[in-house]
Specification:
Elements (H helix, E strand, L loop, with lengths): L1 H17 L6 H14 L3 E2 L11 E5 L2 E3 L13 E10 L2 E10 L5 H18 L9 H13 L3 E2 L5 E3 L6 E5 L16 E4 L2 E3 L5 E3 L7 E3 L5 E3 L2 E6 L2 E4 L3
Antiparallel strand pairs: 1-4, 2-4, 3-12, 4-5, 6-10, 7-8, 7-9, 9-14, 10-13, 11-12, 14-15
The protein binds 2-amino-4-trifluoromethylsulfanyl-butyric acid and cobalt (II) ion (2 copies).
């Protein structure tokens, strides 16, 4: 897990150094594909349930699962790049929302609060923590800033498969859910909207998830190992 997660982390850093206005989202995906392969890993999303690319590149109102295309990145966009890589039979999964050029104060704040939501969820996280404490921490922080939490998509366990049990919602009631155990690896991935929490699933491509009101959304994800006395972020 550490090995595949290290590849994901390095790939996202590479994307961060190279992503810029004028590139298409397909060019971003080419960077991702080449980097993952050069590390001796494979992109898990390529061919996953028919998904056609090595990354999900989701611009502005696209929440997640944006299929790389001829869409050109422009100044002021916020772009979530979500990558899963497999090495030696194990997966790592992480996402960052990148800022393209001059991004409005409003959108920058959304991206910042979304990252903070992840770290709020990590506070006190360890073996024995009730699962829905994670979502409760994310939801409390997002809503305190007037944002909303996507309900239709959730985080997940990860290991030999990209998606394993349990589901890890970004909302929930404190003190409820299964108790986490040392050795579990889960993906915590807040998807936070500026407006409504409601989303639409594309009827055309079967993947793209967009906000129902067209307002921006941000995404931040890491693979996390639960330990006896804490939690280790494997993709950071
Ligand atoms: N990486 C995504 C997640 O965080 C899953 C993408 S599946 C794909 O769960 F097929 F859309 F790539
Ligand atoms: Co992901
Ligand atoms: Co994930």
């Amino acid at each position: 897990m550490r090995e595949s997660c290290r590849v994901v982390k390095k790939t996202l850093e590479f994307v961060g150094r190279n992503i810029r206005a004028g590139m298409t989202t397909k060019q971003v995906d080419e960077l991702v594909y080449k980097y993952i392969i050069s590390e001796g890993a494979t992109p898990s999303s390529l061919g996953y349930c028919g998904y056609p690319a090595s990354s999900c590149v989701s611009v502005n109102e696209v929440v997640v699962h944006g299929i790389p295309s001829d869409r050109v990145l422009s100044d002021g966009d916020i772009v979530s790049v979500d990558i899963t890589a497999e090495k030696n039979g194990y997966n790592g999964d992480a996402a960052r929302t990148f800022l393209i050029g001059n991004v409005s104060e409003e959108k920058r704040k959304l991206v910042k609060v979304t990252e903070e939501c992840f770290f709020k969820a990590l506070e006190g996280l360890r073996a024995g923590t009730p699962l829905y404490d994670i979502g409760n921490a994310v939801q409390t922080h997002a809503e305190s800033h007037g944002y909303s939490v996507v309900r239709a998509l959730v985080g997940h366990g990860i290991g030999r498969e990209m998606h394993e049990d349990p589901s890890v919602p970004n909302y929930g009631k404190k003190g409820t859910g299964m108790r986490l155990k040392a050795g579990m690896t889960i993906c915590i991935e807040p998807m936070i909207n500026m407006g409504t929490y409601k989303v639409n699933f594309s009827r055309e491509d079967g993947w793209t998830v967009t906000t129902a009101d067209g307002l921006p959304s941000a995404h931040y994800e890491n693979t996390v190992l639960i330990t006896e006395d804490g939690a280790e972020i494997l993709t950071l």
